[in-house]
């Protein structure tokens, strides 16, 4: 129902910035929430941020002030602006779309690698 394509990952030095993009297609009008997660090998996949259909946002407490989630409805795209990056931010970052009409469904992007060097 929903397809997600992520881009913008790569290698960046500590203190630098990256902007991740997630383009949605398919049943985009049914999406309730867009999310960013991240995961490193041997670690659980953790929520980074989400933005609702009404525009409200939520961030992991440890990331507030450095990461910003936003959306461009005209292009059906959600962004994650990452600033002041640290080596511990290194992870695969995943975009997700949540549809919760009568039960919750979550659709995942393929993930994009972010590597922060020290």
Please tell me about this protein's structure.
The protein is mainly beta and 118 residues long. Helix content is 0%, strand content 58%. It has no helices and eleven strands. Strands 2, 4, 5, 6, 9, 10 and 11 form a seven-stranded mixed β-sheet that branches. A four-stranded antiparallel β-sheet has the order 1-3-8-7, with no helix packed on it. Strand 9 (91-100) and strand 10 (104-108) form a beta hairpin. The model has no long low-confidence stretch (mean pLDDT 95).
Structural class by secondary-structure content: mainly beta
State the end-to-end CA separation: 40 Å
H/E series: EEEEEEEEEEE
Strands, count = 11
Largest sheet: number of strands, sense, barrel closure:
7 strands, mixed
Low-confidence stretches: none
Q: Which band does the percent of strand residues land in?
A: over 45%
**What portion of residues is helical?**
under 10%
Q: Please compute the radius of gyration using only Cα atoms.
A: 14 Å
Question: What is the residue-averaged pLDDT?
Answer: 95
Shape: globular
Number of helices in the DSSP assignment: 0
For the structure shown, list the relevant keywords:
118 residues; mainly beta; 7-stranded mixed sheet; 4-stranded antiparallel sheet; 11 strands; 0% helix; 58% strand; globular
Short description:
This protein is mainly beta. Helices cover 0% and strands 58% of the residues.
């Amino acid at each position: 129902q929903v397809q997600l394509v992520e881009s913008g990952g790569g290698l960046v030095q500590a203190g630098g910035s990256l902007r991740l993009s997630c383009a949605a297609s398919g049943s985009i009008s049914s999406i309730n929430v867009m999310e960013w997660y991240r995961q490193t090998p041997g670690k659980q996949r953790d929520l980074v941020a989400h933005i609702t259909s009404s525009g409200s946002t939520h961030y992991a407490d440890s990331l507030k002030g450095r990461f910003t989630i936003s959306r461009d409805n005209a292009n059906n795209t959600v962004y994650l602006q990452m600033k002041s990056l640290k080596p511990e931010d290194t992870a695969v970052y995943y975009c997700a779309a949540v549809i919760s009409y009568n039960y919750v469904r979550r659709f995942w992007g393929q993930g994009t690698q972010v590597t922060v060097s020290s």
